[in-house]
Amino acid sequence: PWLGEWYPVDAEYDAYYLMLTRAFGRHRVSVRYDEFSVTDNDEIPDDDNGEEGHAWTATYQYEINDTATVAFEWLGIRSERPAFAYFGADTNVTERQLQLALRLSF
User: Fold this and answer.
1) Which of 24, 82, 91, 92 is the most exposed place for a label (fewest CB within 10 A)?
2) Contact 80/53 with Cβ under 8 angstroms?
3) Is 51 exposed, middle or buried (0-12, 13-18, 19+ CB in 10 A)?
């Protein structure tokens, strides 16, 4: 779809990751590294869709029984997104998340 002479969004996305995991008995430990980038190809002023960053994830899972697993996961993302400046926000951002999950299978 066109917006006058411009495409509303024309961007390229690149990403890759490396994950290592080790299972022993009812336990599993995983570590993952992600790297990503978005290249903004359109020429719309004040609409920078570019971004780049990387992330680390660490997970521990314990299989309680055949139908229940508990998991602890930590995620840390570091990214640079120039468009955040439009809102007066820092363009370099670090985000972290810690979660606990109970997974039930039926």
Assistant:
1) 24
2) yes
3) buried
Residue 33 has which token pair? 């590294």
Per-residue confidence of the chain (106 residues) as pLDDT tens digits?
Answer: 556 666 677 889 999 999 999 999 999 999 999 999 999 887 777 778 889 999 999 999 999 999 999 999 999 999 999 888 888 889 999 999 999 999 999 9
The type of residue at 88 is: G
From the list 25, 18, 37, the residue with the least C-alpha distance to 78 is 37
Residue by residue, what is the 3-state secondary structure of 4-27?
CCECCCCEEEEEEEEEEEEEECCE
Cα–Cα distance list, 70 to 24, 26, 57, 99, 106 (Å):
15, 11, 16, 11, 15
